[in-house]
Every structure is written in C-alpha cells, then in structure tokens.
Amino acid sequence: MTGISLNGGLIPFGGTFLTFSDYMRPAIRLAALSEVQVIYVFTHDSIGLGEDGPTHQPIEHLAALRAIPHLFVIRPADSAEVSEAWRIAILRRSAPTALALTRQKVPVIDRKKFSKADGLRRGAYVLADTETPRLILIATGSEVSLALEAREKLEAEGVPTRVVSMPCWELFDEQPQAYRDEVLPPAINARLAVEAGVRQGWDRYVGPSGDVVCLDRFGASAPGEVALRELGFNVENVLEHARALL
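Given the sequence above, the corresponding structure tokens read:
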C-alpha cells in the first residue's frame, strides 16, 4: 500500500483484526517512515471480540502501534467519532493513520447532552463536564460509554466528575499546552484512565497520583460482554478505582 500511495492518485486502505497488525508492522512502519498516506482499518479491537479467545484478542497492540513515529492511532467511541476519525485520515496526506474499531455494539453518545464529536479533531476533548470537577475519567473507544456510566453514579454520590474522550494520543500531544491543560488541568490529580489494553503509556496522562483500569494479561475465551465484565471493565470496578483516588 505504501507503493500505491507513493505512486499518487489513490488513497490506499486495508482492514483486518487489530491483533493481526503484528504481521503488518514492517509495512506500517515503512508507510510512517516514507511519510505517505495509508489508512489501516483495524476491527475487533479488544477482549470484547469474544469467543475467539486470547489468540485473537489484542492486548498490547494499541501500545505497539502508538510507539511508531508519525502514525496516528485513533480509537473512536461511537459512530460520530468514527466519522471524525475518517475525516482526519482522509485529510492527513503525509502520514498513515490507523483506526481501531470494536466488534461489539457500542451506544451512540447523545450529542445533545454531551459534547460534539468534532472534539476528536484535537485528539482528546471534554465529553462530559461539571462545575469544579474533583475527578477526571479518561477513556478511549468502547470504554468511553463505561466512563459515562460510572460518572453518572459518581455524580449521584456527590463527586463532581469530568469525562475526557481521548481517541488519539498523538493528535492530542500536538495541541498547544494551554489546550492540553484545559482538558487535563494540572491541579486535578485524581485521574483514572480506562482502556482495554496494557497500561503502557498512560502514566503521562494520569500523572503520579492517578490510576488506570487496564489489562496487563492475556484475555479469555468468553462472550464479549462476559470477558469485559470478568476482566474488570465494568462499572463496579471503575467506581472502586475512582473512589480510591479521592
């Protein structure tokens, strides 16, 4: 696909399971090194894919792709964010983009209640806010709806909670420091990231006082919703970690 892009006239793209990005790594790296536009569409992006089990469930793959210079890795939360992710990928002419999409259904976020999805254009944005938040929940992809659900319960308990959707680390890191501080105020140390993958890389966003609900082990063969629930991606576990930060 790098050759097609170098030839001009076409925007090459391809798709497969995220776990198979391992086999594609040399080609992805070459596209990034060559600074050409290639779009990689990866699906089945977590243990939520279900019964295919650990061999097909990506754990370390988001971190591995994020380690490649010039590659944007975008993990959208819902269909509105997917549209914005495609916009970024199409307009990004001098570097490749990888989209990480779920297998399982995810709720469509109510954009009349929460922020518009065009915040994705800056890598991360405040999706749900409150006056003087004490806690920030940061999530990507299918875990954003989980963070919103946890926020609802925390707010009911009297804990002002902000939810940040962070679909693209690389794009967020390119933003001015003022914007990054606006999304993740340095004064708020209670930060919890939620992502169905390894912890690697999250510490720079949650800080030394923050925490991560992540998965530093291989998955398990079970229906997607069961695997997610049993491996800690449930409201109760998010609430437990959040309360421990306060």
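The chain has one domain: 2-245. Try to locate this feature in the token string yourself.
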